[in-house]
Specification:
Number of domains: 3
Helix content: 25-40%
Number of helices: 16
Strand order of the largest sheet: 3-2-1-4-17
CATH superfamily of the largest domain: FAD/NAD(P)-binding domain
CATH topology of the largest domain: FAD/NAD(P)-binding domain
Radius of gyration: 22 Å
Strand content: 15-25%
CATH class of the largest domain: Alpha Beta
Number of strands: 17
Oligomer: single chain
Shape: globular
Distance between the termini: 51 Å
């Protein structure tokens, strides 16, 4: 924690250790074997499988649920992991309520879908607990591939390439692998160090070397990577955060929501993490919800999310919005910041009400705040990249960039929807394309 962040209202220990443990317990406790069998029995095993169509990684959902129903969860896990090697994490963080479960026939008919995400977790957890890896490496091809970024896209790409018999070197700027899964997701969604456990399990395929503390631009150049490897995959994510661009947004107590979430995920004692009394989060996406809910769980008295557009434009799902409300987070829409007030440190944030075209209505209001989190989108920060499409790397096909021999996927590539499951699909598909290119 930066010492300047410790302003008057930002203190540690707002809740006792026992309260914090209860507050940050698993958001969706795992199903027991009996619960999984009962849940699987609700599946109609539809022949057209709208749930599979809605899954970005094309998992055969009716098949894996049938395998659970017949008492073979390990086989179900193999079905899942053959398409999504990070199926365990995706089962925990994927917005299934707006993907596979939203189109479930049970949801359409009854308003209560099959709990596909929880069943996926049951299957993958069962296999991982058996301490086995369901895939084997093919004979060595002699090819060497660089993967830059050990997030979901990079890990999925590396695993698929290693399985094909290639040697893979994964470079990552952070001390730990995992990317968003390790640093960017609310702690109550992935408890007990699951992100690192999944990385360690994935690495059992063999043929993957991980080098931490290596950032593209500062430590690595694309030209050198190309010269030393047969192919390069870029899964560098988005390292920058958009600025508020209003007077006072550099005051003490103002910080990026992603940094707050990353710090919370890495701290060993939640009671030692300072949080404000009055917290304001600007943004309407999953990151904003994760920051707001966790600030409330840490003991902040008042937590308010403010979004510049209408409620129907919030990118956070209805489930996430309801979760925030259930934890005491207030959400204000159609308001955008115009100034941050305070003498050195933030004390109030001033907003202007907006219409549907984001034009100010002429009505302003202020919210007290000793801590202000920015969650208004991230930007790509790296040097020597291939051609861009807007603010992301331009790609065609399965992640091919403007530079021959270089692929990209995940949040840094144009065209995706910034979901963990989509990043996995893009990394996997790029690996298949790289393999096809290298092997002729």
């Amino acid at each position: 924690m930066d010492p300047k962040m410790l302003t008057e209202g930002i203190v540690a220990g707002r809740r006792e250790a026992g309260q914090l443990a209860d507050a940050f317990e698993d958001l969706h406790p795992p199903l027991s074997e009996h619960e999984a069998l009962v849940a699987a029995d609700r599946c109609y095993f539809c022949h057209d499988a709208p749930c599979t169509v809605a899954c970005p990684t094309d998992i055969d959902i009716p098949l894996f649920i049938r395998q659970i129903a017949t008492g073979t969860p390990e086989a179900a896990a193999r079905t899942i992991l053959s398409q999504n090697i990070l199926g365990g994490m995706c089962a925990r963080v994927c917005p299934t309520e707006t993907l596979c479960e939203e189109v479930c026939v049970r949801e359409t008919a009854e308003g209560k879908p099959v709990v596909i995400g929880q069943l996926q977790r049951f299957a993958t957890d069962t296999l991982m607990a058996a301490d086995e890896h369901p895939f084997e490496r093919a004979p060595s091809t002699g090819k060497r591939i660089a993967v830059v970024g050990a997030g979901p896209a990079g890990l999925a790409c590396a695993h698929r390439l290693a399985m094909k018999g290639h040697d893979v070197v994964v470079y990552d700027a952070r001390p730990k692998a995992g990317g968003l899964n390790e640093y960017g997701i609310a702690a109550y969604k992935t408890v007990d160090g699951f992100a690192q456990a999944e990385v360690n399990w994935l690495m059992k395929i063999g043929g993957i070397t991980l080098q931490n503390g290596k950032a593209l631009g500062a430590d690595l150049s694309l030209d050198d990577l190309k010269a030393e490897h047969d192919a390069v995959f870029l899964g560098v994510g988005l390292g920058g955060v958009n600025a508020l661009g209003v007077p006072g947004d550099d005051k003490d107590g103002v910080r990026d929501a992603v940094d707050f979430i990353a710090e919370l995920r890495q701290v060993s004692d939640l009671a030692a993490l300072p949080v404000g009394r009055d917290v304001v989060v600007i943004g309407g996406g999953m990151t904003a919800v994760d920051a707001a809910v966790q600030a409330k769980l840490l003991g902040a008295l008042n937590v308010i999310m403010v979004y510049r557009r209408g409620k129907d434009r919030l990118s956070a799902s209805d489930f996430e919005q309801d979760l925030a409300a259930s934890r005491g987070v207030r959400i204000i829409t159609n308001a955008q910041p115009v100034a941050v007030h305070g003498n050195g440190a933030v004390r109030e944030v001033e907003f202007a009400f907006t219409d549907d075209d984001l034009k100010p209505t002429g009505q302003n209001f202020r919210l007290p705040a000793d801590q202000l989190f920015r969650a208004i989108g991230q930007t790509l920060i790296a040097d020597g990249l291939p051609d861009l499409d807007g603010r992301k790397i331009a790609v065609t096909g399965a992640g091919r960039t403007s530079v021959s021999g270089v692929w990209a996927g995940g949040d840094c590539a144009a065209g995706g929807d910034d979901l963990t499951v989509t990043a996995v699909a893009e990394g996997r598909d790029a690996a298949e394309d790289i393999h096809a290119r290298l092997m002729g």
